[in-house]
Design brief:
alpha/beta
């Protein structure tokens, strides 16, 4: 899967936890669009009002630590975020994102991307391209099975498709 259209990078640092992505006081809903209105509410209050579909979240190490709630990746999906690129992810966030169909990429050079720069990613090739600097960074492509889950929109649509074809 390729997200070749460049989109703005919203850059965050290390150890951004799920309560910083979607503060727990707002998780009274599971509606992605409602949750999106609260994404990064305390960390970057301008995010939810200014993020556009097709943009990317770029982060440092251990993105998404903390709770196993699915609200954090749901809020990013609702906001229209195309993918999350980070130096590393908390395991539970990584898997929740894939299960919900949100592309995630581990990119050791993610910290070279500056806030507001235009980036695109190629999930199959495992690359992140910074259009502002014309640099391409190697990332870890998802294994084919996990890429299939993302391509189908997450675990539920993937499973429905498999059951319907059986």
């Amino acid at each position: 899967m390729s997200l070749e259209e460049p989109g703005r990078a919203w850059v965050f640092g290390d150890d951004v936890d799920t309560d910083q992505i979607t503060p727990s006081r707002f998780i009274v809903s599971t509606d992605p669009e409602e949750l999106a209105t609260h994404a990064f509410n305390d960390l970057r209050p301008e995010f939810s009002a200014n993020v556009d579909s097709g943009e990317f979240v770029v982060a440092g190490k251990n993105f998404g630590g903390g709770s196993s709630r699915e609200h954090a990746p749901l809020s990013l999906i609702g906001a229209g975020v195309d993918a999350v690129v980070a130096r590393s992810f908390a395991r539970i966030f990584f898997r929740n994102a894939i299960n919900l169909g949100l592309p995630v990429m581990i990119c050791p050079e993610a910290d070279r991307i500056e806030d507001g720069e235009e980036v695109s990613i190629d999930l199959d090739a495992g690359t992140v391209h910074n259009h502002d600097t014309d640099e391409t960074y190697d990332a870890e492509p998802l294994p084919p099975f996990l890429q299939d889950l993302v391509d189908e929109g997450g675990l539920k649509p993937y499973t429905r498709k498999k059951l319907d074809s059986a």
